[in-house]
Amino acid sequence: MKVLVLYYSTFGNVLDMARLVAEGVESVPGAEAVIRTVPELMPDEIIQGNDGMKAGREKQKDIPLVTDEDFREAGAIAFGTPTRFGNMAAQLKNRIDQVSALWMEGVFEDKPAGIFVSTASLHGGQEATITSSLGPLMHLGMIPVGVPYSTQELFVTQGGGSPYGPGHVAGGNNDRAIDSEESAICRALGARLARIGLKLQG
């Protein structure tokens, strides 16, 4: 079973999280992670004027854009986004807004979905972004999946991560490495999506 790990990232931090989620997926026998991204909407002159954004773009140059077939083939989906004032990034929402035909076909119904996020600051809207992102996924007929407290790192994380989903605190310069607790929570989400997806497939 394929688990689609679909993300948008400006500086590359959410891509790093996506790779950790994918590791969790592939720790489950019978599950395969498929990492995809979405089109950039930010003007090129803004990206070229920021060294961090330019490095982030270069880091992601080989990640394919998601296709309708990726959505059809996925037995579960993890959505990754930076926070934008308590909401998912416009780039990811824009791609979700284009799946109406698939929604009409019922492509997303009964598939588990999880959300992972990155913020610059410790209280930068991680939980708000995850909960506000649930609306579109519920409309698509997906089954929300979080991270339960059997994941012990939730008790000790000093960065991101909550029962709502994995989180990363990237710092004011967007260059703080994902720490061990954040990494474990990312892997836990990937593994849980894979297990639940396999069970739902029967």
Automatic annotation (TrEMBL):
Keywords: Flavoprotein, FMN. One of its GO terms (molecular function) is NAD(P)H dehydrogenase (quinone) activity. Pfam families: FMN_red. It comes from the Bacteria. PROSITE patterns: FLAVODOXIN_LIKE (PS50902). GO terms for cellular component: membrane. Residues 3-194 form the Flavodoxin-like domain. Gene3D superfamilies: 3.40.50.360. Belongs to the WrbA family. PANTHER family: FLAVODOXIN-RELATED PROTEIN WRBA-RELATED, FLAVOPROTEIN-LIKE PROTEIN YCP4-RELATED. This is NAD(P)H dehydrogenase (Quinone). It comes from Aquisalimonas asiatica. The lineage of its organism: Bacteria, Pseudomonadati, Pseudomonadota, Gammaproteobacteria, Chromatiales.
